[in-house]
Write a structure and sequence with these properties.
single chain, 406 residues, alpha+beta, 5-stranded mixed beta sheet, 50% helix, globular
Length: 406
């Protein structure tokens, strides 16, 4: 695996570094990372859509060596929908796809609204909040717990273990994090396996039952595949939606004119969410492995070499977006890559958009800027995600070390 201690981009604000690197070359080999960095929209799209690229990291010798040294926790998602190619990817995605179709998302709209209203009630009433722990993470957690139909006990367990599980998606989990990932995965597995066994005998209308008893008569998933799918939906879906809500709220606090525009134009919330996704993408990287020798841009890529697609850089490519570093909720035009593109386009994108739309509209209409006596935030250290550790709104607390304050 690449040594990300020499990661070439900043954590607090990587965008100036992306911009400088892209000017140097839109595709470039980084020897210390042992990977090609892909920084332009054009080349990122080519990699994510291309049939000459695999999503399976086991095709990369460096990853195999990393797994051999680090144990099973490092490869917890190595056989998941995220890291598989057709036909396995097609089969796995089909097993969950119907729960994330536009029709399915519309069907749970009212429930999502109720969850968002409950999470934001303290702010609406004028109380200070810490957005990440009180709003951004609880909203997607409550939704996924309902899709799994695991009750309050299940929601509490998933809430406690999922943040640790998400570290498995980092480039370089530390030994301590690998241990925590393994413990979290085991705790969730021990909770879910008996539920899966019960649903085999007495299925319901939930996502677990659908994977066991496909409504279209297709082949059911095996128990280990169901558990891996659940772990992935928790780690990827929960984390990315929480990051979208956190990053988007911070961007709106920093640009009160845009916050005011959204309050006046809630009907344009889908467009606003897409701009917030583009502007500060919750997931910053995607990884692919070359299936064969090929040329990307002007760079020769060898079979088995890895490309790290810098989604955050591609989404601010000036060749694609006018004034890319400016947040403009009225922006229309080219689509972004925050949810990927091609076969691995995020299966839960529609649900994440709905949760974010409802959260941002209610935040804007709560008079967020007027109610806030101040706000402060602290970023988490991550290369895969743009993640806030904390975003305090409506208080005058003295910032901790590393905490930025308005």
């Amino acid at each position: 695996m690449p040594d990300s201690t020499i990661w070439p981009f900043g954590i607090d604000d990587p965008y100036p570094d992306y911009r400088a690197a892209r000017r140097e070359a839109p595709v470039q080999w980084n020897e210390r990372l042992r990977a090609h960095l892909v920084l332009s929209q054009e080349h990122a799209t080519a990699v994510l859509r291309g049939q000459d690229w695999s999503s399976d990291p086991r095709n990369n010798p460096d990853f195999l060596a990393f797994m051999a040294d680090s144990g099973e926790s490092a490869g917890i998602f190595a056989r998941s929908m995220l890291t598989s190619d057709p036909p396995d990817h097609t089969r796995l995605r089909k097993a969950v796809n119907r729960f994330f179709t536009p029709r399915a998302v519309r069907g749970i709209h009212d429930r999502v609204v109720a969850i968002v209203d409950s999470a934001l009630a303290p702010l609406v009433e004028g109380a200070p909040i810490e957005l990440m722990s009180e709003v951004a993470y609880p909203i997607p957690l409550a939704v996924i717990a309902e899709l799994f139909d695991v009750g309050l006990e299940g929601a509490e367990l998933l809430g406690a273990e999922t943040p640790k599980l998400a570290r498995a998606l980092e480039l370089d989990p530390s030994p301590d994090e690998l241990e925590a990932i393994g413990s979290a995965a085991m705790a969730i597995m021990l909770f879910l396996v008996p539920i899966v066994a019960r649903r085999r005998l007495d299925p319901g209308c939930d996502l677990l039952s659908a994977m066991i008893h496909p409504p279209d008569g297709g082949p059911p998933l095996e128990t280990d595949e169901i558990i891996t799918m659940c772990l992935l939906l928790l780690a990827a879906g929960h984390e990315t939606t929480a990051n979208l809500i956190g990053n988007g709220t911070l961007a709106l606090l920093e640009r009160p004119d845009q916050l005011a525009w959204l309050a006046r134009h809630p009907e344009h919330s889908p467009q606003a969410v897409d701009e917030l996704l583009r502007y500060d993408s919750p997931v910053q990287i995607a990884s692919r492995v070359a299936r064969t020798d090929l040329v990307l841009g002007d760079v020769e890529v060898r079979k088995g070499q890895r490309a790290i697609v810098m989604l955050g850089a591609a989404n601010r490519d000036p060749a694609r977006y006018p004034e890319p570093d400016r947040l403009d909720l009225t922006r229309t035009g080219p689509s972004h890559l925050a949810f990927g593109i091609g076969p691995h386009f995020c299966v839960g994108a529609g649900l994440a958009r709905l949760e974010a739309q409802e959260a941002f509209v209610r935040l804007a209409q709560s008079g967020l800027r007027q109610k806030a006596a101040g706000w402060s935030h602290r970023r988490d250290h991550s290369h895969t995600f743009r993640r806030l550790r904390a975003l305090h709104i409506g208080n005058s607390r003295v910032p901790d070390a590393g905490l930025s304050r308005a």
